Structure formats: structure tokens, C-alpha cells
Amino acid sequence: MFQPEWESMDRKDLRRLQSERLRKVVERVYHRVPFYRQRFDEAGITPEDIRGVEDLHRLPFTRKADLREQYPFGLFAVDLKQVIRIHASSGTKGKPTVVGYTRKDIEHWADVCARAIVASGGQPGDVLHNAYGYGLFTGGLGLHYGGERLGMTVVPVSGGNRSRQVTLIQDFRPRGICGTPSFVLSLAEAMIEAGKNPRDTSLKYGIFGAEAWSEEMRRTLEETWDIDAIDIYGLSEVIGPGVSIECREAKDGLHIAEDHFLPEVIDPETGEPLPEGEFGELVFTSLTKEANPVIRYRTGDIAALYTEPCRCGRTHVRMSRIKGRIDDMLVIRGVNVFPSEVEQVVLGMEEVAPHYQLVVSKEGVMDKLVLEVELSETFVRHLGPSFSLEHESCGKLSFRLRAKLKDVLGVTTEVVLREPRTIPRSEGKAVRVIDRRNPVKMKG
User: Fold this and answer.
1) What fold characterizes domain 330-435?
2) Which of 217, 311, 334, 389 has its CA 20 to 30 A from that of 21?
3) For 398-440, what is each residue's pLDDT tens digit?
4) Alpha carbons 21 and 235: distance in angstroms, whole number
5) Is the dihedral of CA 294, 299, 304, 310 positive or negative?
6) β-strand 98-101 against 335-337: which pairing, if any?
């Protein structure tokens, strides 16, 4: 562990610490952020009413729309002169969401990212190939500072330019790599195209996040690169990457840095807290953020929480892997469908490659769901000169995929097989869903 005194705290001591920090952050936002003072007053709550974690449910929620409406600095709890860094979302739905960091915020962020890297198998002296995007996006700089805090040599390569990245991996010999799973998988593809075997590199572990991914994707990454593939979670509204991380020992849930972030899971419809182990919307309250702490921020991510001990020795609560997002959930003929469920099916079949898109449209008044997926090059080579998309084997494969998807999703899905390397590759987050039912609506 990077900070064992915090990461393995007795849970009673941790709860006391959380309660103390919660009282302080509630006091700060009430007196320094007009938005929160108004929300508290509307709810009939004063800081004195919040005695500890047991009163968390009494506090009002914060939503992404609130951050946009308070653009740019309306949620800051400090004077702008104390803010040394600003990050922001892409703003695909209008105004971006803006977050600020004091010097202490940056130190805390570096600490939790260093914890995450150690949990993944990183250690001082490692070379870390950081393929997350730099700039206003929090991914690249968060893990960059965490790596430096740990004492690593960080290569800030960012995203894009796959051929250069392949060269740097071969020449700089990193032990760790960070990036979105889809992009790092495409790096392996570029390496194979160059006649190199990804399993022969110096890489031992990968830290993957910024998009939902499945256990099947983990197996694909680990088999392709011969590494441990570790899931990391974070969001800029709370701090960035480092909110939670899997441990290399168990890979069974992501340890939340509970001394900094207080988690809940709620029913997304009613807002009521859900019991341990039940899936719902993930909610976070900042406990140590100075510049712009958030109170009960609704992430839109679907997960569950677990408190049972982990064999790695960390005592902080674990969250499940993200099942999906509320706004990414597709409702197809009344059935809830998550792209991650489709990915499990795709990656479980060796005849197809891990590159796919879901296309949703209307056929009359009915929803139509189509999976477009590439054939694997191994499958195409096996068919030899007789290969065509009309080959009998392709027809049988398409039938098997449709049947499997029906079993898993509960809805009929058409399957369109594509030749290798015909689905667009992403430089960052993979575009998995194209929803043509309402072309004006844009997903953030």
C-alpha cells in the first residue's frame, strides 16, 4: 500500500473520520457557496443538523445540471486566487462542467492516484506509459501526478499516434500502461500489424478506465498483452481518476478512497438509499476537496457497494465495476439494455474481434437493435480463399450470436458481420452506441 495508515484503517475509526470531515465540509459549503446555502435552506437544514455520516441522507443532491448552471465558478468554495488548476468536461450538451483545485487538492489527488498505481502493481522506479488524454480532461494529469508522487518515470504520451506509442513501448520498456481499454487494445493491434508480439513487451500491468468495460475485455487485454488489467474509476466532478481502484491481488471490486470520498448507492427513481450489494446510482460527497466540494453528487453511473474484507488488507468499501450509465442505458421495446452486456457476449466468442458498435433505430413504431461486429482475422484466415461475408460459416456464426444476445439481453438483436478493421477505431473513449431514434439528442 502507498498509505497503509489510511488504506487499512479500522472501519470504526474511518467512520469517525468521515463524520468529522463531513461536518466540516457541510459547514464550509453552507457559508461559502450561495448555491448550497439556498439548497440547504430550501430543505430546512442547517450545518448543525448534520452530526455525522448517519445524517448524510438528509442533505440535498447535486446534479451535473447544477454544475452547468453555476458555470464557470459558482460552486467554488474558495477565492479564485487560491485555485491553481482548472479542469473541465467536453461540454457536449452545452456549457462544460468546471472544476477547480487548490494546492492541497492537487496533493490529495496525487496521493489517491499513487495509491491506485500501487494497488495495480506499480512501484517506485517503474516507467509508466500514460496514454490517457492530457489537457482539460482529468485522466492524463491525474495519473501523471500520481506516478510522480510515487517516484515513477512517467511518459506523458497522451492519446493518438499509435505507431509512435508502439515505438515508445518497445524502446522505453515501461512496466505499466494507462489508458482506455479500447485504445490500448488498438495499440496491440498496431503492434501486431508492425510484426511485433504485444506479449513480448516489458509491460506487467495496465490501469484502464474512462469507459465501461467487462470481464471479457479484461481477459482479452490480459491475454493479448500478458499483463494484469486493473479497473480504475474517477470523475472530474469529484476529483478525477483515483476515486477507486481494483487491487491486483483480488480484482474483485474497486476500493474507494473513503477518507476522501463518501459513497452511496441510491434508487435512481426515488433517490432513496439502497442496501449493500444492490445495484443503483452511485453518489459521492467530497470530504477533503477545498476548491469545489460536492454534496451527494449523482454520478449517473450504476454500481453496488460491498464492505466485506478484501484479502489485500485494504478496509475501505469496494464498489462493483460500473454496469453502465443511466443515460447510456438503452430501452429497447421496454427492456433495459447496457452496452457492457453486449460486450460480454462479443468477447466471449473467438470468431469475432473486440470491435463493435450498437446501432439503434426505428422500424415503424418499434425499436430496432443492430450489432455490427468485426470478424476476427483468425476466423477469416481459417476460411481461407473461400471467405466472404456470405460464407455458410458466417451465417452460422450470425445465428449463434443472435441466439446468445437474445438469451442475455431478452430482446431480439440483428447481427451484421463486418470484415476485419472496418469499424472506426477511437483515439480515446470508444463510440459503442449510435442511437438514430432521436438524432437531435447528443450524449455527453
Assistant:
1) GMP Synthetase; Chain A, domain 3 (3.30.300)
2) 311
3) 999 999 999 988 889 999 999 999 998 776 677 788 888 764 3
4) 21
5) negative
6) unpaired
